Amino acid sequence: MPLRDSVTDAPDSQRVVRILGTHGVPANYGGFETAAENVARYLTDHGWRAIVYCQTDHEGPIYEDAWNGIERVNISVPNLGWLGTARFDWMSIRHAVRHRDVCLTFGYNTGVFNILQRLHRVPNVINMDGIEWSRRRWGVLRQAILYVNERFAALFGNELIADHPELNKYLRTRAPARKITTITYGAHRPEDPPEELVEALGLKAQQYLTLIARPIPENSILELVQGFSAKRRSIQLAILGAYDGGDDAYHRAVLDAASDEVTFLGPIYDPATVQALRYHSLGYLHGHTVGGTNPSLVEALAAGNPVIAHQNKYNRWVAGEAGLYFRSPAEAEKCIDELLDNPERAEELSRHALARFESEFTWDRVAGQYEALLRKSALSLRTQSD
Question: Quick one: which of 167, 156, 163, 149 has its CA closest to 108?
Fold first, then answer.
């Protein structure tokens, strides 16, 4: 289906946004894809044309289609890791600036390319993600590249989104405060998913805790497994993620520390299954130490999970009174003891989780804030055109 050339061709009641920086929709990759899909759905429901750039491996040139009312620009770039993503971003931006619609960019990994929007006077709203360059897992070279691209994105973006108040403070060292807005990540509240999805994994509803995280040291998985495995629990700890017991020393350490009550489920990408795991869990263990508003933590709050989280300013702000907090394996053990031995306390934490979710993290609230920022940018584009 052909796409109209620009926002100035659309009726006054309809605005246009081009969404870049993700693998595309439907979301089946990660947090940014989920955000792009939910924001695009909200915008189309509120009179916008939302056009999402999608990375594919089809044969042939760029083609356009639609999915659930969301327009898509499909660009064939094989998923060749970071270099493939960079090539896809470059091709997406080059295509987008020809149309002079407002851009919404997720991430700054290729922030240097955002100079194209500046040169073409195309407003670009950039979600600046967490402090990605500081993550040890990237190695020195990639950390340096990310650091430079963060600076370029902060310079070239017209509006910057911080997904956490602490990241807002951090971004003020990179850009003027007037162009930084805090908008968190969102989630949907599960609607009584079937227990059969959990039972198919060998678990029983309300007889396990969940831990969903990439298996790297900065996510404190070893500390949580050690705290859980310090004694018999008579419940399971269900861990999602790919654990290789061979060459990866950290993976081996986690596997070695785990008692026979720890169940490694492997990576699970089916949204319905993950939602059921959260909904029927006694609580959620969250060891992340870096970044802003973590999507997995928000989704745990939406499921009403009591939370045991690493003690840091990011997790504290997100979970608030829904959480018990730890810094060491011994503290993690005490938090797990408190959660499992005191049903009244667990119920109180669950109520706080749902209240925190409803007050801050629903997609209607989050996407509505995106729309307000995009309206501001669309107005500036029309002013340029007049």
Answer: 149
